[in-house]
Amino acid sequence: MEKTRRVQMELAQASYERLNRLKDEVEASTYTEVMKDALRLYEFFVDRDAAGDAVLLRDKTGATSQVKLFLSK
Prior knowledge:
This protein is mainly alpha-helical. The protein has one domain. 45% of the residues lie in helices and 11% in strands. The protein has a two-stranded antiparallel ribbon with strand order 1-2. The longest helix is centred in the middle third of the chain and has 20 residues. The chain is extended and about 40 Å long.
């Protein structure tokens, strides 16, 4: 079994409300589940960006546009 570590975070009220809304939206049982999923997604996009890949968004009409996730680069 993988060893776990406790992490304590302080969030602004707006951030807490976003976390709570996402927890409800994805029907997660805990905030930890939401944060672990978010971390996996963030890591994926950071790795793809580092590899020079682009993120494309296709809207409901079929139009495609590039999404720049990391503006600091």
